[in-house]
Amino acid sequence: MTSQAAEGPETVVASRRSKITPEREREFFDAVLEQIRECGYDSVTMEGIAASTRCSKSTLYRQWKTKPQFVAAALRASRRVRFAGIDTGSLAEDLRQAARAAGDWSGKDTRLLQALGHAVTSDQELAQALREALVHPEIAALEEMLARGVARGEVRADHPALEYIPAMMFGVLRVRPVLNGQYADADYLVRFVEAAVLPALGLA
Amino acid sequence: MTSQAAEGPETVVASRRSKITPEREREFFDAVLEQIRECGYDSVTMEGIAASTRCSKSTLYRQWKTKPQFVAAALRASRRVRFAGIDTGSLAEDLRQAARAAGDWSGKDTRLLQALGHAVTSDQELAQALREALVHPEIAALEEMLARGVARGEVRADHPALEYIPAMMFGVLRVRPVLNGQYADADYLVRFVEAAVLPALGLA
DNA sequence: GTGTACCGGTACTCCACCGTATCGGTACAC
DNA sequence: GTGTACCGATACGGTGGAGTACCGGTACAC
């Protein structure tokens, strides 16, 4: 990301400055995110990352100036939309599928969000990266679903529950570990949609 | 708590081992919880607590063996039920008042929960203390409200949304900062109850 | 008044991490 | 082939917190 200049259509090698391949970079990023999930943001050390990826601290510091910048880069690289492509033609079914999808990555992302939750309060770039990687894509996808439902006339555009649906989904996802001691799995979330989200929208 | 043996009905002094008064102890506890909210659990140091309360590290280590034990004691001492006494005779109104009450301590407790969220995964005693201090009392109070509503016949006992209400309330409370960048205030929560919680229960 | 034991202060050891510097090996450019 | 510059390894100084040890002062018990 910071180090590649893809010139040729095929060869990745094009007078680049860094010899770190994208695959290698992904190893670093995977390692740091995993260690954050395991030990928390503060406990993650550049030394630890270097050791677990068998690279040297120098290499990391050459590419990224500081730990927050490194983590932010890792987050940006891990960005992907998990609700992508859900469009069944029915809002209720869209939400059920989103719940199912959310349940599948629930553990990993919930841990990451929890572990970074406090670190972001003191680093703007990190906060931005976290939102872009884990929060905003999913929220946007949810809001698109809702917009399509409104467009189809399933829900009125001024329905008061609309603005709370993303918070409900995300919220239940995040607090389940605290309340019940286990991550929200797909089944739990689908039942939640059925029992609370759809009724709130007047769809059940 | 660890150090007092209240024998006389009035005099606190009764052949106690520690000279630390309950007021002094509360200073320590307030300081550590506040610093946790500000800087996160890992960044809080016994040295910092000692400095900010003008006591010595020795004093702290004399009373509590380790940092997690100290923090756990602080949590246990801060335990109080915030929804206590809410009983309006109507479930809808109970929930509205709970939302209002929650909004008032939202910032402080949300920050504390967030800051400790990861630390508790590696310390059982801390986890237990956190649940007893911040989570369980509120959940229990909510469940009592719901039970009363069921007893009054406002909601059927097998209503599927019932089990999700605490998670919804807590969840929205906690994720609002992530989604909107601000803590959930009383107004936001009351509107949430109105727009989503009551409809989910078939009460609006 | 005397003794005890706790308090606050400080100095200390130990340890882990940060960030930098140095160095040999080597892959790639030309 | 030769040069360049990046990689991985290691070592280094500096910092800061965890706990411990010691010490003078003092409040309370009796």
From TrEMBL, chains A, B:
The keyword Ubl conjugation does not apply. InterPro entries: Homeodomain-like_sf, HTH-type_TetR-like_transc_reg, HTH_TetR, Tet_transcr_reg_TetR-rel_C_sf, TetR_C. Residues 45-64 bind DNA. The keyword Transcription regulation applies. Residues 22-82 form the HTH tetR-type domain. Pfam families: TetR_C_11 (PF16859), TetR_N (PF00440). Keywords: DNA-binding, Transcription, Transcription regulation. PANTHER family: HTH-TYPE TRANSCRIPTIONAL REGULATOR RUTR (PTHR30055), TETR-FAMILY TRANSCRIPTIONAL REGULATOR (PTHR30055:SF149). This is TetR/AcrR family transcriptional regulator. It comes from Streptomyces lavenduligriseus.
